[in-house]
Amino acid sequence: MEFTLKSIQEAHEKYTGPDFPMLFKAFKDMGMVSNEVNIQHGTSVYTNTDGQTITAEGVKVSHPIADTSHVEEVKDILTRHQAGQTDFPTFCEEMAQAGIYKWFIDINAGTCSYIDLNQQTIVSEQIPQ
After folding, report:
1. For the whole model, what pTM was predicted?
2. What is the CATH number for 59?
């Protein structure tokens, strides 16, 4: 798979919530090293091993990001989304209400970290590989 916007979009269409480990694998196969999703600004930045970046329009939440983050709420939102109970736009809105404005996927470390407005990692999870 090539590191192109088209390949990234195709992977997103193919793999959703419960299939996140497969999306992660597709990203890795493209040579991607990180993905930062900012739901406050509605952008996703993808970076490959050569340092090349692709910035794409993403989901921008309609509500302001909560000033205070709630760890247990974030964990509950993640559990429900990973079980296929919410679609991606709903997941983003719920994360905003729980105080998360972005998440950072580190492909090499195999982690996804959810970050609040104070730049604090609220939840970091290992991605099954």
Report:
1. 0.89
2. 3.30.1810.10
**Which pLDDT tens digit goes with each residue over 61-103?**
988 999 999 999 999 999 999 888 998 899 999 999 999 999 9
Structural domain of 28: 5-126
Whole-number mean pLDDT of the chain?
A: 93
Quickly count: other Cβ atoms within 10 Å of residue 106's Cβ.
15
Could you tell me if 82 and 17 are in contact, meaning their C-beta atoms sit under 8 angstroms apart? yes
Measuring CA to CA, which residue among 3, 40, 7, 21 is closest to residue 111? 21
Structural domains of the chain, count: 1
Q: Which two tokens stand for residue 124?
A: 């970091």
